[in-house]
Amino acid sequence: MDFALSEQQAAFRDLIRDFAGRSISPVARESELTGRYPEEIVEEMKPMGLFGMLVPTEFGGIAIDAVSYSIVFEEISKAWMGVAGILGTHSLATLMLARFGTSAQQARWLPDLATGVRRSGIALTEPQAGSDLQGIATVARRVGDHYVVNGTKTWITNARHADPLPVLVKTDPAAQPRHSGMSVLMVEQGMPGFSFGKDLDKLGYRGPESSEVFLADCLVPVENLLGGQEGHGLQQVLQALEFGRVNIAGRAVGVAQASLDRSLAYARERHAFGRPIADFQAIQLKLADMATEVQAARLLTWWAASALDSGRRADLETGMAKLYASEVCIKAALEAMRIHGGYGYSTEYEIERFYRDAPLMAIGEGTNDILRTVIARRLVLEEPS
Length: 385
Ligand SMILES: Cc1cc2nc3c(=O)[nH]c(=O)nc-3n(C[C@H](O)[C@H](O)[C@H](O)COP(=O)(O)OP(=O)(O)OC[C@H]3O[C@@H](n4cnc5c(N)ncnc54)[C@H](O)[C@@H]3O)c2cc1C
Description:
The protein is α+β, with helices and mostly antiparallel strands.
């Protein structure tokens, strides 16, 4: 068994690492603190093909494997997790179109989404329903050759830039089981009745906007129903979320690794009682735990990504990776703050940003407790081997 990346994967990682170190790291702190949207970074990511990571080559994408996909999120998040958010839900939207879209939908949207000319996101969460997606209240009623859509979505990352935006709706609110009445509609900017609210204030994850989305008698043509058949929306979304969990796990590994890197450098240079603090065993124990846990999280993420690459069902693997990596990330960011003492609390350093960014990874793409229930269900249902 070989835990190393292939030559091609390692070369790709070096490319992304170089880009993140050159173009993201130098501007991350100031952009994040001032809330400036990183437009110039977006422009650089377009020709690199990063908006087409999960788009088949026939539509102009780079169609990378899921391990490489997780590495993109790790390397970018080592520099600034917010930038990873610009690619995250966009890539899930492209995956849904590539897997489930009709040929007309794929030909219409995938080439522009692959190059970043068009961007996207994914609109699932509502003010009254996040984990319980079958409890959403957005309804799409078919009238002639259109759906009339009413509802509100919230926390939608990239909402202002998304065109088209996949929106999870109920096409048959009375259906039993409830998921059989759920569908995804590709809603386009400028459609009558479609609007979004102001950017929501948030603890971290600044850079990409997260906004409310309003659908008020919004008219969506029937040809915008993803896959052309009603009733498959929840399965379409759940498959995309398995990739989402790998991208969140990758981000968590990135922020945790950055916390470790900064802590190691600081422990070597900061002196107390006449010695570098790295000489104190109390500091060494923290560094050893961080390094061990970050590597374990990375390997778990690659393992989950490999499961996705094999094409088999991977809810257990991707759930474990996202759960573990995000908890490691939260702990590493806090340990980095302890190691940095007062400076860790200062906006002059990046530790406070890691600390603010880390908790999102335990919430997004399924909260960690929801993932525990998914993992446990698989364990309990499966025959012992
Ligand atoms: C910065 C940010 C960006 C986001 N971006 C997007 C986006 O782009 N698109 C999108 O659709 N959503 C997005 N979200 C929403 C996110 O996916 C949800 O917040 C998340 O799924 C949890 O849903 P909720 O907030 O409604 O919490 P709830 O579902 O209300 O959960 C509240 C608490 O109850 C627990 N809980 C709920 N049900 C159970 C259960 N059955 N068993 C045990 N515990 C349970 C949860 O674990 C949690 O601790 C974003 C959120 C944030 C903060």
